[in-house]
Design goal:
The complex is a heterotrimer of chains A (170), B (123) and C (424).
Chain A: H1 3-24, H2 28-48, H3 52-76, H4 90-112, H5 124-129, H6 133-140, H7 145-166
Helix pairs in contact in A: 1-2, 2-3
Chain B: H1 10-33, H2 63-116
Chain C: H1 2-12, H2 23-60, H3 76-85, H4 97-115, H5 132-153, H6 157-180, H7 182-188, H8 193-198, H9 208-211, H10 213-229, H11 241-244, H12 254-279, H13 290-298, H14 304-329, H15 337-370, H16 383-413
Helix pairs in contact in C: 1-2, 2-3, 2-12, 3-12, 4-5, 4-12, 5-6, 6-10, 6-15, 7-15, 10-12, 10-15, 10-16, 12-14
The chains are: A mainly alpha (170), B mainly alpha (123), C mainly alpha (424).
């Protein structure tokens, strides 16, 4: 077994374990800390996939920005401890349904993948260019132009949403 | 040997392990060396000598939440500008226009929150 | 690091690094050594700076400062460390013990991880990352998370206010910092810290600081943003002693307090090194041109002194900036929270965005006018060289002259005598 395979299992185990802790633990702040662990393990897996840019973005955006927002919201609401919540509401069912659908979609696309998708990485020139900011940028600004511009609209909506939600008193 | 995606990250892992190891070792050493004579007064939280009133975890201003959301939005914006910045010569004026449209949308957003007063903390 | 080791293996040991059996072993040992050396360096720098800053502060306030332990008191930090080591480790009964203990490690980890990509000289850094600057921005996230947790877990009002203020401040100022770093990235076309340095030159007019007005303005925006990110005065609101006791680390004592303390002083190096890299030419040695260096590299004859001199140049610039930061700390009063927020969102963020757009326009125009030559440094007596020099003068010299005139006027205004070296 190569180092990469060992590390993959290590990161995968860490991801699953810390994700499980997020779901199980009662104290919201401990959940948040555990979520940081999940994000970092995921970043490790991205590195193993040669996706260097995505790995750093994972840390920058999720472990950084999103996590700070989570912590702020937890602190803002002074959530000391949340109960397990036994009521079977419509939104819970919807959430569970969405989770199952997402899992099925991901599983479907994983099963379609070739067994060793990283065989190309044996070519050092390809490996050096893959996943760098350079190559991501070339794709983003040519082939994926529309999604990219759509992101700006999404961000605008997020700004407006933030102000509307907080409007009562700022 | 086939190239590994891990090469640039090895020193990172080592530095992290060393730093965390040294830090934990020092903390353990401190707990061994230091005295341990806890008293009820020592274990109170510090509020300049007066007794603390009420819980510390109070609700705080919603402004902080707005700042956190703004941070996410503009952080993501900056993240999208970096791939353009390393390629902008190759992308030329077309890429510049794309970036300008993207940035302009967010400038509109910034102007909106500015107008709404979310950036004014004077009160 | 790898390049450096390859060079040593190839040029000093006469082996081919690709086929030599011991290469991986050399890498591993060197990386262990680098990790240990960086941690030691960070801790030593932080300790020495804590002494140095106290001495400077004392000098600026007509006091003596710590001068008893060792020559000029230089060993004071060891005495302090020893004291903190044998202190009782207090954890208040109201705090969340587990999170309280964990928080300092987040801060230390964020700090140690930054050092790994920082350059220290020519080919001298623990690793080279394609996403270098991005990485530096992203690991500060760990510090923010650590500060927030420490404030919350302490279960004390001062700590909570300090932690929340710190988080709001650091994340806010990360936006102008992240945007303005785009200016050197645009000019160099890379996020790798060494590439950004190599795109600059040794002489001051080859630095990005003086290359364009955007670089000049960008440097100051980055400077202010990094001051705020490092919680340095005038942005020390998170630990404003007169308002919040000590902010997020109020409840900490002993070694755990020392970690927050060390990180804060060590951050001085990190921010100065980032500024040196982005705008001050990094390790470029004056007189050694890019062609010169390329020739040495092609022949595998980079002289040993170049490694040393480049490291000395880098450290000198970084230390100079660190001293400016210390100087600022003991000169300016603290800003208010609302001033801190409006400075960031109403001034720095729009200014940084405008700078990026302007820098892109000028770079694209110069690229169209001069083609690929625009990326190479121009000789002084040519059209490009003269445009460049005009930018240098407009961006650097004129504001500098204005600054000195204003300062001297202020001094005369309060009725003091102008002594150029000592009274401003």
């Amino acid at each position: 077994m190569s180092v990469e395979v060992v590390l993959f299992w290590l990161f995968a185990a860490c991801t699953l374990l810390s994700a499980a802790v997020v779901v199980v633990v009662r104290s919201p702040l401990s959940c948040a800390i555990s979520l940081v662990g999940t994000f970092f393990s995921l970043a490790g897996i991205y590195v193993l996939l040669w996706a260097h840019t995505i790995a750093v973005l994972q840390v920058l955006v999720y472990a950084g920005a999103i996590m700070v927002l989570f912590l702020f919201v937890i602190m803002l609401l002074s959530l000391a401890e949340v109960g397990p919540g036994t009521k079977l509401s419509f939104s819970r069912l919807l959430g569970a349904g969405a989770a199952v659908a997402l899992f099925a979609a991901l599983l479907g696309s994983i099963l379609k993948l070739p067994v060793r998708p990283d065989a190309w990485a044996a070519d050092p020139a390809k490996a050096a260019a893959f996943g760098t900011l350079d190559s991501v940028g070339k794709l983003l600004y040519t082939s994926y132009l529309l999604p990219f511009e759509a992101v700006s609209v999404l961000l605008l909506v997020a700004i407006v949403g933030a102000v509307v939600v907080a409007k009562s008193r700022i | 040997m086939s190239p590994s995606p891990l090469a640039p990250y090895l020193p990172l892992a080592v530095a992290l392990l060393v730093a965390a190891g040294v830090a934990m070792a020092m903390a353990v050493l401190a707990s061994v060396l230091g005295p341990k004579r806890p008293t009820a007064i020592k274990q109170e939280i510090f509020e300049c000598g007066s007794e603390s009133v009420g819980p510390a975890h109070q609700r705080f201003a919603v402004k902080f939440y707005v700042v956190a959301l703004l941070f996410i939005v503009f952080d993501v914006e900056a993240v999208f500008l970096y791939p353009w910045a390393v390629n902008f010569r190759a992308l030329g004026w077309f890429g510049y226009a794309e970036m300008a449209v993207f940035a302009a949308t967010l400038v509109v957003g910034l102007a909106y929150i500015w107008k709404k007063g979310a950036l004014s903390w004077e009160t | 690091m790898r390049e450096f080791l390859d060079e040593i293996i190839r040029d000093r040991l006469g082996q081919d690094p690709a086929s030599w059996a011991l290469t991986q072993g050399v890498y591993l040992v060197a990386m262990m050594a680098a990790g240990i050396a960086l941690t030691t360096f960070g801790a030593l720098f932080a300790g020495l700076t804590s002494w140095w800053e106290r001495r400077i502060a004392a000098r600026m306030q007509s006091r003596v400062g710590p001068n008893r332990v060792g020559p000029q008191g230089i060993l004071q930090f060891l005495a302090d460390a020893l004291k903190l080591l044998v202190k009782e480790d207090l954890i208040s009964s109201a705090s969340d013990r587990w999170l309280f203990r964990a928080a300092p490690y987040f801060v230390v980890a964020g700090f140690a991880l930054t050092f790994v990509v920082l350059p220290f000289g020519y080919h001298l850094s623990a690793t080279r990352m394609n996403v270098g600057l991005f990485y530096v921005l992203s690991v500060t996230a760990l510090v923010v998370v650590g500060i927030l947790i420490s404030g919350w877990a302490s279960n004390s009002k001062w700590a909570l206010f300090g932690g929340i203020r710190a988080a709001a401040q650091v994340v806010s100022y990360e936006i102008p910092a992240g945007l303005v770093i785009l200016v050197p990235v645009l000019m160099a076309g890379s996020l790798n810290l060494h590439d950004i340095i190599r795109a600059q030159g040794g002489w001051p007019w080859d630095w990005y600081l003086f290359q364009t007005p955007m670089g000049y303005a960008g440097f100051f925006i980055l400077f202010v943003a990094l001051l705020a990110e490092g919680n340095r005065t005038p942005f020390d609101l998170p630990e404003a002693e007169s308002e919040l006791v000590s902010g997020y680390n109020t409840e900490y004592s002993g070694m755990r307090f020392a970690y927050f303390f060390l990180t804060e002083f060590g951050n001085l190096w990190v921010m100065s090194a980032v500024m040196t890299t982005c705008f001050l030419g990094g390790w470029q040695v004056p007189g050694v041109s890019a062609e010169n260096l390329a020739r040495w590299e092609a022949l595998h004859q980079v002289p040993g002194w170049f490694y040393l001199v480049s490291a000395a140049v880098f450290c000198a610039k970084t230390l100079l900036l660190a001293n400016v930061v210390i100087w600022i700390r003991w000169t300016f009063p603290r800003v208010r929270v609302d001033q801190m927020m409006s400075l960031c969102w109403k001034y720095l963020v729009p200014a940084a965005m405008a700078l990026v757009v302007l820098a892109a326009v000028t770079e694209l125009m110069s690229f169209e006018l001069f083609g690929e030559a625009a990326r190479v440094q121009a000789p002084l007596f040519s059209l490009r060289g003269l445009i460049h020099f005009a930018f240098f003068a407009a961006g650097g010299l004129v504001p500098a002259v204005l600054f000195f005139r204003k300062t001297f006027r202020n001094i005369s205004f309060v009725g003091d005598r102008v002594r150029p070296l000592s009274n401003w």
